[in-house]
């Protein structure tokens, strides 16, 4: 089996008294896209900076393509790691044309090869026509595509992306994400990307590692993490949730929406987490309608979906999200049913 493109083993890193990364192990296989996902300050960028060689390893070891790149007393400098870097602020060279920006890492190559590589990399991000332009002549999205082309042109075996789309507005972000995923897949390079946006991680990643307070708390495919979060923290990170308190009895927690299965011991205090899209909403009296009556408190049609706040008979409020545009009157009676596959039970801390 080939070595991972990147392997971190038991890596820890502190800035003075701040423990930014704690005993973290993570591997990225060749061709794989892995996202580090977590809230601001959880240590994501530090992991990336360590992998890039921008920080020296204080504890643990980092190997790139099976070769030791960092450990206490060993530090391969960033320029010798054959790693492509893309940061949020693009960091293009303002005085160089797009062509020379993309060719920057290829200066020592034969001019014919260099030219070929530049055009191929620009072709992959759809910007061949801009090769003679200067960065300030391009939009933010185009500049970010150039930054990606620059990182990929030397054909590194590992690319590191730090919040690469966060400087772009929402619409542009989607376009640049599409181009980026396609270019990364085509290049076959291993990718480690940092983001605090769960939807972005789900869109980009083969595998997501969720970080909290310097540690990886769960790792898996996007669908795994969405369907089987191991904690309230992970569940909440993947979108809005409803929280209901309960107690485990005979392998179930009773809720207003019916029993939800759990492995918790009898008598354990439990928290039931329900995603808004797990609640089926139908008009009262409709055939096949749910069993729990509620009234509409607010409805916000958002285009692709509608977000509802609903009040149950006991006054408890829940959030629901349904596909398409739906604008019931405030106070309208509805019936709710729960898809138990999207309800999770966690022990109360
Ligand atoms: P993230 O990328 O998840 O936002 P970082 O890796 O940037 O997290 O930061 C992790 C922790 O380390 C935070 O508490 C942050 O304030 C601290 N930190 C990051 N860089 C430095 C630095 N150069 N000096 C001191 N503290 C830092």
Question: Main traits of this protein?
Answer:
349 residues, alpha+beta, 6-stranded mixed β-sheet, 5-stranded antiparallel β-sheet, 8 helices
Give a quick summary of the entry.
The chain is α+β, with helices and mostly antiparallel strands. It is 22% helix and 37% strand. It has helices at 44-52, 98-102, 111-124, 140-152, 170-187, 198-204, 222-227, 232-237; strands spanning 6-15, 18-28, 33-37, 59-64, 67-71, 74-75, 83-87, 158-162, 190-195, 207-212, 215-220, 242-249, 252-255, 258-261, 269-274, 279-283, 292-301, 305-312, 317-323, 333-338, 343-347.
Architecture overview:
It is a single chain. The protein is α+β, with helices and mostly antiparallel strands. Helices cover 22% and strands 37% of the residues. The chain contains eight helices and 21 strands. It has helices at residues 44-52, 98-102, 111-124, 140-152, 170-187, 198-204, 222-227, 232-237; strands spanning 6-15, 18-28, 33-37, 59-64, 67-71, 74-75, 83-87, 158-162, 190-195, 207-212, 215-220, 242-249, 252-255, 258-261, 269-274, 279-283, 292-301, 305-312, 317-323, 333-338, 343-347. 40% of the residues are buried. Adenosine-5'-diphosphate is lined by residues 15, 18, 20, 38, 40-46.
């Amino acid at each position: 089996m080939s070595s991972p493109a990147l392997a971190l083993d038991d890596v820890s890193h502190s800035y003075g008294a701040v423990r930014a990364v704690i005993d973290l192990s993570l591997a990225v296989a060749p061709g794989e896209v892995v996202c580090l996902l977590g809230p601001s300050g959880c240590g994501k960028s530090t992991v990336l900076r360590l992998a890039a060689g921008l920080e020296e390893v204080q504890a643990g070891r980092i190997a790139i393509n099976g070769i030791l790149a960092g450990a206490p007393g060993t530090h391969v400098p960033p320029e010798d790691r054959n790693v492509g870097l893309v940061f949020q602020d693009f960091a293009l060279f303002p005085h160089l044309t797009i062509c020379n920006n993309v060719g920057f890492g290829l200066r020592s190559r034969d001019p014919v090869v260099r030219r070929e590589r530049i055009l191929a990399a620009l072709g992959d991000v759809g910007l061949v026509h801009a090769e003679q332009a200067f960065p300030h002549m391009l939009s933010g999205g185009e500049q970010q595509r150039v930054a990606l082309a620059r990182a990929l042109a030397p054909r590194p075996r590992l690319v590191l992306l730090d919040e690469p789309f966060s400087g772009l507005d929402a619409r542009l972000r989607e376009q640049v994400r599409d181009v980026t995923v396609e270019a990364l897949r085509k290049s076959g390079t291993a990718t480690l990307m940092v983001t605090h946006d769960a939807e972005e991680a789900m869109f980009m990643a083969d595998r997501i590692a969720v970080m909290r307070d310097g540690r990886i708390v769960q790792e898996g495919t996007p669908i795994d993490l969405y369907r089987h979060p191991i904690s309230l923290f992970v569940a909440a990170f993947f979108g809005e949730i409803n929280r209901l308190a309960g107690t485990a009895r005979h392998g179930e927690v009773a809720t207003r929406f019916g029993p939800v299965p759990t492995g918790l011991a009898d008598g354990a205090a439990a928290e039931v987490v329900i995603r808004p899209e797990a609640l089926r909403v139908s008009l009262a009296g409709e055939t096949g309608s749910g069993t729990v009556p509620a009234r509409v408190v607010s409805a916000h049609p958002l285009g692709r979906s509608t977000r509802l706040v609903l009040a149950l008979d006991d006054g408890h409020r829940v959030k629901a999200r349904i596909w398409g545009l739906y604008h019931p009157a405030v106070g309208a009676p509805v019936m709710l049913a729960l898809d138990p596959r999207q309800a999770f039970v966690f022990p109360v801390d």
